[in-house]
Design goal:
Elements lengths: L11 E2 L1 H9 L12 E2 L1 H10 L11 E2 L2 E2 L13 H21 L5 H5 L2 H7 L7 E2 L4 E8 L4 E2 L4 E10 L4 E2 L4 E2 L2 E2 L1 H5 L7 E2 L2 E3 L4 E2 L4 E2 L4 E2 L4 E2 L4 E2 L2 E2 L3 E5 L2 E10 L2 E6 L4
Parallel strand pairs: 1-2, 5-7, 6-8, 7-9, 8-10, 8-13, 9-14, 10-15, 13-16, 14-17, 15-18, 16-19, 17-20
Antiparallel strand pairs: 3-4, 11-12, 20-21, 21-22
Length: 261
């Protein structure tokens, strides 16, 4: 029996041998000199090269093998640990008292508006500490970037003024799809992405590289958006389409879906 997933050209591998190769995570390369590979050939190869199997209790941290019998809880009695926990508790109390909320440790330690200033974002823009920021990202004034977001400026990312980027939103300007599918023969895709002003990007929406979204647009939650969308668009779906309009007048905004066609 020959399986092209295992066998070299013209080689025969028996069904039992194939099963053993799969069991041990082997390829047929060590048996390229054989016209026919039998289960006994695989068994002999495995026996000859048997390596000690790590114990289920063996655990490593980098190159260090950890001693599981050590007193790993001793660190909990360390004065530095107690001081750290006291500080974090005080910061959590402050957050609860002043803002009535709980946030991650990073956001206890870092002011969101200060982070926005440190990255050169516009006046009054804040960004949560756990936001991943890559490459060249330009964000305007009075924007809100929620927790768990990705601002990918690898290919260039521009966000206008007064934009709410909801929790878990990913704004991409690159992908590695073709590079991965070709075994890194193709380069990664880099294409600038632009979000206009006065937009709302709903929770966990994903904006693909090269996307251009105009001003005063609403992107529904969980949408995958890629393409060019004019101002005042209601964008929704996976893949997303322009499914309606946004009408702004007299200080109010109305989201109006297109009538069924």
């Amino acid at each position: 029996m020959t399986d092209p997933g295992y066998a070299a050209p013209g080689q025969v591998i028996t069904a039992k041998a194939q099963a053993l190769l799969a069991l041990h995570g082997l390829t047929a390369e060590p048996f390229a000199h054989l016209a026919e590979v039998r289960s006994t050939d695989v068994e002999e190869y495995v026996r000859a090269r048997a390596l000690p199997v790590p114990s289920a209790s063996t655990r490593r941290f980098g190159d260090e093998e950890l001693d599981l019998d050590a007193d790993w809880d001793a660190v909990l009695s360390d004065d530095r640990y107690r001081e750290l926990m006291e500080l974090l508790t005080l910061l959590r109390k402050r957050m609860r008292a002043r803002y009535n909320r709980h946030v991650s440790t990073g956001d206890l330690l870092h002011d969101r508006w200060q982070l926005g200033r440190e990255y050169g974002f516009g006046e009054g823009t804040n960004v949560y500490d756990d936001c991943l920021i890559l490459g060249d990202v330009v964000v305007g004034q009075k924007c809100w970037v929620g927790p768990g977001c990705i601002l990918d400026g690898s290919g260039g990312l521009t966000v206008g003024d007064y934009v709410d980027v909801s929790s878990g939103v990913h704004l991409y300007s690159h992908n590695t799809i073709e590079r991965a599918l070709t075994g890194h023969q193709a380069p990664m895709l880099l294409k600038a992405t632009r979000i206009g002003s006065r937009c709302f990007i709903g929770p966990r929406a994903i904006i693909g590289p090269g996307t251009v979204i105009g001003d005063e647009c609403f992107v529904a939650a969980l949408s995958y958006v890629q393409g060019v969308f004019p101002s005042n668009s209601f964008i929704s779906g996976n893949p997303a389409k322009r499914v309606g309009t946004v009408v702004v007048a007299d200080g109010r905004a109305r989201i109006r879906p297109f009538e069924n066609r």
